[in-house]
Amino acid sequence: MQRNKQAVALLLAALAAAGSGPSLAADMAAAKAKAGQCFVCHGPDGVAKVPDAPNLAGQNEGYLVKALKDYKSGKRENEMMNAMAKNLSDQDIALVAAYFSSIVITVKAP
């Protein structure tokens, strides 16, 4: 997880240095908008709001892409997720995966 945070930070710094800051912000806004349909179960912060839904915050981006593609194709079965994924384009899937994987997980002290 720490490696993922470092990779995201490095990517953000490189893009900002290259003058791509506004574009990156727009991309993340698009990613959050596309992930909006997921918020009912998985929460806008990636912390599940439904008992049987997994937390997605900080999850590996590649894993999320594969899972969504598998739900879309029917290779992975879950009635709700199959219905949600069936109309997602590859770009939509990439945006949703990027959004949830970019969320930094914070642990609150007891």
Radius of gyration: 15 Å
The CATH top-level class label: Mainly Alpha
Give the tally of structural domains.
Answer: 1
Q: Characterize the biggest β-sheet.
A: none
Number of strands: 0
Overall spatial form:
globular
N-to-C order of helices and strands: HHHHHH
Q: How much of the sequence is in beta strands? A: under 5%
**CATH fold name:** Cytochrome Bc1 Complex, Chain D, domain 2
On the 0 to 100 scale, the average pLDDT is: 83
Per CATH, the architecture is Orthogonal Bundle
pLDDT < 50 stretches: 17-21
Secondary-structure-derived class = mainly alpha
- End-to-end span in angstroms? 21 Å
Helix content: 55-70%
Number of helices: 6
CATH superfamily: Cytochrome c-like domain
List the helices and strands and how they pair.
Blueprint: H1 2-17, H2 21-35, H3 39-42, H4 61-73, H5 79-85, H6 90-102
Describe this structure in words.
This protein has 110 residues and is mainly α. The chain has a single domain, classed as Orthogonal Bundle (Cytochrome Bc1 Complex, Chain D, domain 2), CATH 1.10.760.10. Helix content is 62%, strand content 0%. Helix 2 crosses helix 6, helix 4 packs across helix 5 and helix 4 (61-73) packs antiparallel against helix 6 (90-102). The protein is globular.
